[in-house]
Amino acid sequence: MRLTASIRRVFLAAILLLAIPSAASVSLSQGVAFFRIGAGSADSTYFAIGGLLANAISNPPGSRACEDGGSCGVPGLIAVAQSTDGAVFNVEAIGKGDLESGLAQADIAYWAFNGFGTFAEQGQIDELSAIASLYPESIHIVVRADSDITDIGQLRGRKVSLGPVQSGSFVDSQIILEAYGLSLEDIDVDLLMPGTAIDKLRTGEVDAVFLVAGYPVRALSEFAKDFRLRLLPIDGETAERLVTENPFFSRDSISADVYKTDKDVETLNVRALWIASAKLDDELVYGITRALWHTRNRKLLDNAHPDGLGIQLETALVGLTIPLHPGAERYYREAGLLRGGAQDGAGDEMMPPQDGEAETMPPQDGEIVPSEN
To answer: Of 50, 151, 197, 241, which cross-links 39 as Cys (Cβ 3.0–4.6 Å)?
Structure first.
């Protein structure tokens, strides 16, 4: 088989990535750095966004200069999105040094960093830090439109896919089920990747699917081309109680035109965070954060995926539940989004721009400025 030059470069980069001994070893002082972004399954929103972030921050040796229309990423950096089981896997892999960074829901990151919830038994993973808050992820509870299931309480005794055990969907599904008086023992649990779960919903092998993802979820959009679906609501007093007891949740709604459903549906969302090992070189993470918000990457973010539109500097500190990496903190402080002394913990001194602050931020080297969108 004959490989093109571009394929050979990608193949070589993938091989070299396997040789990275630990997250702490990644440094631009070596002239080239390989950087992994733990995403989700290949058909997930996380994987698409992970690839988008990798494109935004990469600038391999020999690339055309940014000012000449080339990459505006970190010089010498080769980043890739790596397929994983999801948020829980990503935070655990970062803690072990098996990944440099990854995507995770704000609640998963919070529990992992503090050793709460699903991480109570294994203990805290205090090597975690944040690069940015990216976009809201909505809770989807999906059934076929011809199903007799119209509310969450009716899932009792039904076959329901909650996502892989190491996914944020699996963790959040248990919170939602409990709020409606159900436990894992009350349903027939299946632990499927999103694409497989939707395929089985199509054939009737599962009755419902839990997904926590930014919409539109590609697999659901494909499903909606051939079958009608229904989204079960999370609303009323139950939704209010969930938000009160779990402050990382926010009220949300999914419009009927997203998946061609009969009506808009109320639900909840949680922020997707880009997290990284706190052991990463400060200068490297500073450069990555600068590259992410480079003005010339705005077109890439806006056009490559629907959730890319939600990745905005103005909301980069919204919903953070773990401390910023010092390199990222330096960038946001220079950008005017942080003020005062050193940041000691998640939420400390995180000040989203007020009254147009972001628009008046001093540009970095004449290039990195907040979006005007």
So the answer is: 50
152/120 Cα distance (integer angstroms): 27
- The CB density around residue 118, as the number of other CB atoms within 10 Å, is 17
Q: Are 244 and 102 in contact (CB under 8 A)?
A: no
In contact, 370 and 314? CB cutoff 8 Å: yes
pTM equals: 0.80
3-state secondary structure of 116: coil
Distance CA 191, CA 213 (A): 16
Residue matched to tokens 């989807």:
140
- Write the pLDDT tens digit of every residue in 246-267: 988 999 999 999 999 999 999 9
Cα(180)–Cα(153) distance, rounded to whole angstroms?
6
Closest CA to 159 of 206, 211, 229, 209: 206
Closest-CA residue to 164 (of 194, 137, 207, 131): 194
Query: What single-letter amino acid sits at 335?
Result: A
Q: From residue 96, how far is each of 24, 124, 162, 272, 312 by CA, in Å? A: 11, 12, 25, 21, 30
Q: Does residue 317 contact residue 359 with C-beta atoms inside 8 Å?
A: no
Which residue segments constitute the domains of the chain, with CATH numbers given? 5-135+272-360 (3.40.190.10), 137-270 (3.40.190.10)
The closest of 258, 250, 238, 325 to 285, measured between CA atoms, is 325
Which two structure tokens, joined as six digits, stand for 226? 């051939």
Residues 181-199 pLDDT 10s? 999 999 999 999 888 999 9
Q: Residue 133's closest CA among 337, 364, 369?
A: 337
